What does this fold into?
Amino acid sequence: SLVADLRTARRRFSVEFSPAHDEATAARQWRAVERLAPLGPLFASVTYGAGGGDRDGTVELAGRLARETPLRPVAHLTAVGQPAVALGRVVDDLLARGVRDVLALRGDPDGDPRAPWTPHPEGFQHADQLVRLALEHGVDSAGVAAFPLGHHESPDLETDLRHLLGKVRAGAGWAVAQLTYDVEDFLRLRDRLVAAGCDVPLVPGLLPVTSPRVLEVTRRLTDGHEPSWLHRRLAPLLDDRGAFREEGVRVAVEDGRRLLAEGVEVLHLYSLNAASNVETLVRELGLAAPSAPAPTSQGTAEEGSCRT
Ligand code: FAD
It folds into this structure.
């Protein structure tokens, strides 16, 4: 199962894709899939967009990965704008297509992550409910989001941790941490989980900041917590695309090395639908599976556990 494989960590990285909006991107994305599959990622996740089209794209791409590649697909799923019954149907559709693991998320209000969250009247208020639904429908595992700096709606880190533990108690078997620029932030979250007696595998995300556009993406994902050291390293290179890219990759490799040295087993690599940055990280960090065997066969749903 995915959870067992996260624990044994014979595979050292996972990779993330997003549904493509045009044919050129879809073609580039599939070339990336074909180049990255032989490196033996533990799973390949597909994000779930706010718009209706994106949702279908997630199910289709995850299903295609299951059908046409040896990769283990993980479909992100959010509770945005859908009643529980419709979410159940999405899970059933994923299972019918051979997608057996989901990342269960609440999501953000369409188009504006900072707008107040309003659940669908017959939908879910929080991600723990989606975890339960997915497991009831028979997924092998449900992962959840974790926030090293705390989710922006959480009043403090303690409350944020309590809610993360609630998702594990609901049955989540693993968690992916939101991107941070500082490895220390991730390590502190891992410490908080361990201190709470929670043994759920926690995977950090790694996204090389290879262009000013990617810097914008990460600014959004990290609520603007951009450290001054990163600014000092990248700002002078804004007019030199090649040098900017090299420095962005160098930073990600340094972060990856630090995480591995701290005992992190699996790194979640954002592909932005292209292969080359992921390939570089896999090579520089020695993450390729030795013989890239096929993922282990499916088992029964496996959940994490928390003492508290
Ligand atoms: P929740 O766990 O529901 O948390 C939301 C807020 O409610 C938090 O402040 C939390 O502390 C609080 N809370 C949680 N449970 C309870 C409870 N039982 N009672 C009271 N308060 C509670 N978004 C997308 O749209 N598509 C994606 O594909 C996507 N992928 C992501 C991948 C990762 C790794 C991460 C970290 C985030 C991703 N997101 C994605 C963004 C995510 O949907 C947002 O960050 C969203 O605001 C929170 O989602 P959540 O699942 O953490 O929600």
